[in-house]
Structures are given as structure tokens and as C-alpha cells.
Amino acid sequence: MLGFCDAQSVLEMSERVKAADMRLMLDFHYSDHFADPEHQDIPEEWINDDAKQLTERVYQHTKDVMSLFVEKGIRPDWVQVGNEINPGLLLPMGSRTEHPEQMTAFLNAGYEAVKECCPECQVITHLSCGSFPEYCDPFWEVFFENGGKTDILGLSHIRTGMPRLRSIRAKSRQSFFIIR
């Protein structure tokens, strides 16, 4: 495991962040390791689950962690449901190209769990390579076509500046963050 990955360690670090009067973003990777566009594996404990069970697992895991935070008085300002999920998440079950409905169901389950526990939290859907339309636009198209829910579009690796960002904003009518 990298860094602060279990719920208790993340909670302890988050308490320090809030005690320092800083804003907090919590990021769910839904993986046994750091998730990125090339690594969106199903956690070992969930590997034999079908799509319906995975949807429930995403919901329950998110709700359990968010409930722990709220019980301790920690309310994140932003919550990322997934990390750099251009190809989807929980692959192959949540593949953007092969199972876009399931991908969206997984993400919406996380969104609903966050909002149930902490309605004021802003949920971020985070993609990498935000400056390259060929990597992001196919995701946004299937995500929104299948009823995807998000408050903020999160993007990594912005290199080409404002024209691309304005295009994303115009298409989606969503706020966006540059995550890194």
C-alpha cells in the first residue's frame, strides 16, 4: 500500500488537515493499489463479484468511509469517486468501451453514498490527460449518456491551456478542477 490508504490512516491525516484549517479532498481509488489509467483493477476481495455486487460494494465502501469521517466531525470539501478513470474503473467489469452502463452505475453508486453521508461535499469525476480530447471526450460522452452524476470534472496533465478548458466547460456545463 502507498501512503495513507486505509480508512483509519486517511482519517488521522484528514483530522490534521482540518485542524490546520485547510480544505480537504478525499480520493477513492477502489483498488488494492494506486489506480491510474493503466491500473484500474478490481480489489482482490471483490474479484468474483458480478456487476450488481460490485455496484453495492462501491456504494457500501464509500458509505462506510464517509460515515466514519462524518462521525468524527470530518467533512471533506471534495470527494473523488475514482482516480484517473479514462478507461473506466474496476476493469474489466467497469470498462468504458465494453460496459459503459456498469461503469456509470459504479460511479453513481459512489456519488450517491457520498451525498447520503455528506450532502454538501462536491463529488469529482477525475480523468488524466485532460488536454487531449481523444483521451477524455469518449469518457464524458458515455458517462453522461448513461446518466452519470458528478458535481465537478477533475482533470490531470493540463498542458494546452484555456482554449481546451473552455471547450470542456461548454460541452459539459460542469465546473472543473485541475487535479494536478
Shape: globular
Distance between the termini: 21 Å
Strand sequence of the main sheet, in spatial order? 1-2-3-4-5
Structural class by SSE content: alpha/beta
List unreliable stretches of 5+ residues.
none
Please provide the count of β strands. 5
Mean pLDDT: 87
Give the topology string: H per helix, E per strand: HEHEHEHEHE
Strand % is 5-15%
Question: What kind of sheet is the major sheet?
Answer: 5 strands, parallel
Helix content percent band: 40-55%
- Count of separate DSSP helical elements: 5
Rg from alpha-carbon coordinates: 16 Å
Description:
- The protein has 180 residues and is α/β, with parallel strands linked by helices.
- It contains 5 helices and 5 strands.
- It has helices at 7-19, 51-71, 100-117, 133-145, 162-172; strands spanning 25-28, 78-81, 122-127, 152-155, 175-178.
- It has a 5-stranded parallel β-sheet, covered by helices on one side.
- α5 links the parallel β4 (152-155) and β5.
- α2 packs parallel to α3.
Layout of strands and helices, then pairs:
Layout: H1 7-19, E1 25-28, H2 51-71, E2 78-81, H3 100-117, E3 122-127, H4 133-145, E4 152-155, H5 162-172, E5 175-178
Parallel strand pairs: 1-2, 2-3, 3-4, 4-5
Helix pairs in contact: 2-3
Search tags:
alpha/beta, 180 residues, 5-stranded parallel β-sheet, 5 helices, 12% strand
Give a short synopsis of this structure.
This protein is α/β, with parallel strands linked by helices. Helices cover 42% and strands 12% of the residues. The longest helix has 21 residues, at 51-71.
